[in-house]
Design goal:
The chain is of the alpha/beta class. It is built from 16 helices and 22 strands. The strands form 4 sheets. A 7-stranded mixed beta sheet has the order 6-5-4-3-2-1-22. Helix 5 runs antiparallel to helix 6, helix 5 runs antiparallel to helix 9 and helix 9 runs antiparallel to helix 11. It binds zinc ion.
């Protein structure tokens, strides 16, 4: 009997110590943007808090979009807080759904990000409501009735959890966890996150911008980290070292000589503002005709430009006054009726419209009318994800399907990679080289498999660092805390 009790006690102690060990673990898990570029959601499970870095929607091919409807690998109410790197939909678009599912914590972000996220979520909800309505009207959904992922009301319900924070200031989240934002270029207000957790530093890169943006400052660098969770969108590519201004001017002038139009699909937030700045400069320098109409046909881009103007002095290298002057020189259209007028007008013009990957939005109206005519140019300036019309066009497809109809591709389709909002392979490597000493491990997220594999090999051979490509929903143990007893004392939300 005595022996049985002793054995039971030993087993119990062993069970407790195993549990303690597990409780003291810090685990990383990607719920999205693992071997793909959308759906960014990276979970950090710590003894004190469960933190979600970004909360984005899956976009692109159907199999990815369907994932937005699947349950998450964790209950929404088990997540204590969200830290948001930036306002692109693939980083913030899932927030209304998470709140609907029971998330009630703080959502930390910078001021411009908060303004842009509100705009983007309301637009996303509106598009989803319209899609569901159209599907019900034309009976093309297998769900009866078809429902939106979330509504405008759901989007509005999440704003009260927003908690704006300045860059470079440490924010305490619990006894042993704090973080700070650092600007990383890419788009207005976009940041990387430096999170210190039980004395170990984990960097979440967010989307890293290019050092030579026309309106944003170069990404701020970090010099010390234990672990890096890093994007790898262009992990296999080098942006050409050509002058983007000359390239843009040549392309525009060549199209005007053919009496064609230039259609530039663009993210409403980020690229659109950079582009109007550059086009305006080309006009001032006499490199493109001063009277060439530049139409920004996107209510979203117009609103985003206003937000850029508001935060210009603090968050960009272009002053408010300069931004205002540029905005005054372009035609900003909000009204869909005018779109038809612009299309009918045969004079050469530049049209900037969203969405940037031609997956939806007003740009499709122009594409329908412009893509079949070899006088026109379709100019891509941003990353085109797998399965999008943008990628198909860059891959020389002979026809595109828009709203159920096929259109022959005769227009010139081209790309200026230099204008990308994402760092290329060499710039990503430079970003890592700033860490002194080098980090223990790098975890790659936000990239398609080819780009990630190529970047993994490059980092391992050039920098001799261990690199792992994150798999969706797989736990990765970062470290186990030395602390014997960990008391979960999160800093409570004030809401
Ligand atoms: Zn982004």
């Amino acid at each position: 009997m005595f022996i049985v009790i002793v054995v039971m006690k030993i087993l119990y102690q062993f069970y407790i110590s195993l549990n303690m060990l597990e409780m003291n673990q810090v685990i990383l898990q990607s719920l999205g943007a693992a071997e793909t570029v959308t759906g960014s959601k990276h979970l950090l499970k710590t003894p004190e808090l469960t933190i979600l870095i970004d909360c984005g929607l899956f976009q692109g091919i159907k199999s990815l979009r369907e994932q937005n409807w699947f349950p998450l690998n964790i209950s929404a109410n088990e997540i204590d807080l969200i830290i948001l790197t930036h306002a692109h939909l693939d980083h913030c678009g899932y927030i209304p759904l998470l709140v609907k599912k029971g998330f009630k914590g703080k959502i930390y972000m910078t001021k411009p990000t908060a303004a842009l996220v509100q705009l983007i979520l309301l637009d996303s909800a509106k598009l989803q409501e319209e899609d569901a309505e159209r599907a019900n009207k034309h009976h093309y959904s297998k769900h009866h009735p078809a429902k939106p992922l979330y509504t405008i009301e759901d989007a509005e319900a999440c704003f009260k959890y927003f908690y704006v924070q300045d860059c470079d200031i440490f924010i305490r989240l619990s006894d042993h966890i704090h973080f700070r934002f650092k600007l990383c270029g890419h788009i207005l207000g976009a940041c990387s996150v430096e999170l210190t957790c039980f004395e170990k530093v984990i960097i979440f890169s967010g989307d890293i911008g290019r050092p030579q943006s026309a309106i944003l400052n170069p990404p701020d660098y970090f010099t010390s980290a234990d672990y890096i969770v890093m994007e790898s969108t262009y992990g296999d590519r080098l942006h050409p070292d050509t002058d983007p201004y000359d390239e843009l001017a040549d392309l525009i002038n060549e199209t005007i000589r053919r009496r064609g139009n230039i259609l530039i699909p663009s993210f409403a937030v980020g690229r659109a503002q950079e582009l109007i700045y550059m086009l305006n400069l080309l006009k001032q320098q006499g490199k493109i005709p001063l009277n060439l109409p530049i139409i920004m046909d996107s209510p979203m881009a117009a609103a985003a430009t206003k937000i850029s103007l508001q935060y210009a002095d603090e968050y960009t290298k272009v002053s408010q006054r300069e931004f205002q002057e540029i905005s005054d020189h372009i035609i900003i259209n909000q009204d869909y009726n005018n779109t038809i007028g612009f299309i009918k007008d045969k004079k050469s013009k530049i049209v900037i419209a969203a969405s940037g990957m031609l997956t939806g939005g007003r740009v499709l109206e122009y594409l329908k009318h412009y893509v079949g005519d070899n006088k026109n140019t379709i100019l891509m300036i941003g990353f085109q994800a797998e399965g999008t019309r943008g990628r198909a066009l860059l891959n020389n497809t002979h026809e595109v399907k828009i709203h159920g109809q096929y259109y022959a591709v005769n227009a010139k389709v081209t790309e200026i990679q230099y204008l990308s909002a994402h760092a290329d392979q060499a710039e990503l490597l430079d970003w890592i080289k700033k860490f002194e000493p080098a980090p223990k491990s790098i975890f790659l997220v936000h990239g398609e498999p080819c780009a990630q594999e190529s970047f993994r090999v490059k980092v391992q051979t050039a920098l001799h660092l261990p690199v792992k490509i994150m798999k969706q929903n797989q736990d990765v143990l970062l470290f186990t805390c030395d602390y014997e007893i960990v008391s979960p004392t999160p800093v409570k939300s004030n809401h």
